[in-house]
Amino acid sequence: MAGNAENRLALAEKVDADLLQFLARLPRRQQRAVLLLLMVVENLLYEMMRERRLREDID
Amino acid sequence: MELGKRIRELREEIGFTQGQVAVQAAVSQGYLSQLENGDVRNPSAAVILRVAQAIHVDPDDLFEAAGYPTVRTLKEVYEGYEANVDPDLLRFLARLPRNRQRRLLLLLEGMEHLVEDTRRGGEGTAGQDPSLSSQRGQE
Fold first, then answer.
1. Is this complex scored with an ipTM above 0.85?
2. Which residues of B touch A20 (CB under 8 A)?
């Protein structure tokens, strides 16, 4: 349990303090919405990159 | 607690005179007296460190009293934040580079301002977007 808390702290230290502070005051439901949004954007960027590489290969 | 008061308290606890501590810390007795009376603005980190060694205390005790951020205070701040952030979100953010984290913060702040402006502008009007106004209501 202590190890888990230590891991979370280690993760928190990798995140910009102002961003962490901003997120900490959002309700959990909105934090989950931010996470989903980030995952969608990440997938979208990945797909766009993949498509560009495929097009470059074809060309 | 103020730095000067803290130094005096810790010095008196171990029964040292100002003269003894001043010699150990390589500062003049007059300077130490000014420090204890709160007459020195922004004493250097080097002086604080030497005084801490002279009175045998953890330098962080004095750095915190002087208002310097220490590893301990930063850790407390981070512990407070991480406890309130969704663990999956924390994991996701931790693997983003710092510059992207800053851009994300700007984006989120921009969205927050947009929501606030929309809410303020739409107050009392029939055209208000209920999904936007209800978001702030959850806080």
1. no
2. 78, 81-82, 85, 93
Q: With beta carbons less than 8 A apart as the criterion, state whether B115 and A45 touch.
A: no
Residue holding tokens 């989120």?
Answer: B108
| Rounded distance between C-alpha atoms, residue B18 and residue B36, angstroms | 9
In b/e form, how buried is each residue of B79-110, taking b as 16+ CB within 10 angstroms? eebbeebbeebbebbeebeeeebeebbeebee
Nearest to B98 among A16, A20, A25 (CB): A16
Q: Which of B54, B73, B65 is nearest to B5 (CA)?
A: B65
Task: State the burial class of residue B21 (Cβ atoms within 10 Å of its Cβ: 0-12, 13-18, 19+).
Answer: buried
Q: What confidence tens digit (pLDDT) does each residue in B71-121 have?
A: 888 888 888 888 899 999 999 999 999 999 999 999 999 988 888 888 888
| Closest Cβ–Cβ partner in B82, B93, B138 for A8 | B82
Quote the pTM value.
0.56
